[in-house]
Amino acid sequence: MNSYFLDDTPVLEIIIRNPIMNKSFPSEGTVIAVLDTGFEGFLLIPETVFKGLSFDQFSTEQRQLVLANALSIQSVGTFGEVVIPSLKNQFSGFIGTVKGFEEIVIGIELIKNLRIALDYCTRRMEVTSCK
Are 123 and 5 in contact (CB under 8 A)? Predict the structure, then answer.
C-alpha cells in the first residue's frame, strides 16, 4: 500500500530526487511523507535529507513560511523532484528545509497535481494523478 493513514494522518510513499546530482532519498525503497493541505509549498524536508541530496550545493532561495498557528519561519530551498512510484509519475517543484524540522511534508503545490479521496470512516485513501 503506497497511500494510507498513519494514525489519523494521511501519508504517501515517495522518493525525493536531485536530478542534477543523480541522488535519491531514500537510496532504496520509499519514504513516508505527510499530506498537509495547510502547507502552501511543494515539499518540506529535514535539513539532513536536504544536505544528503546535495541541494545545499546549489544556489538556494529563502522563503517565509506561515504556519497554521500564524507563526512565520524562514526556510531555504531549491528545485528538485518528487517521484510517486505507485502513480509511476514524478513532479518538479521547490523543495525546502527548516532548521530543526524532522518530517517530510507534501504541500498544496504538489497536492494540486493529485486526485485524493480520503475516507476516514473506512480508513481508506485513494490517490491518482490529475494528468
Answer: yes
80 within 8 A of 53, measured Cβ to Cβ:
yes
- Has this prediction a pTM greater than 0.70? yes
Q: Which domain holds residue 109?
A: 3-129
pLDDT tens digits, 10-26: 999 999 999 999 999 99
What is d(CA 28, CA 43) in angstroms, rounded to the nearest whole number?
Answer: 20
Helix extents (H) in 84-127: 108-111
Q: With the C-alpha atoms ordered 123, 105, 39, 7, is the resulting torsion angle positive or negative?
A: positive
Q: How many residues does the chain have?
A: 131
Question: Alpha carbon 45 to chain centroid distance?
Answer: 7
The three cell numbers locating residue 60: 538556494
Counting the structural domains of the chain, the total is: 1
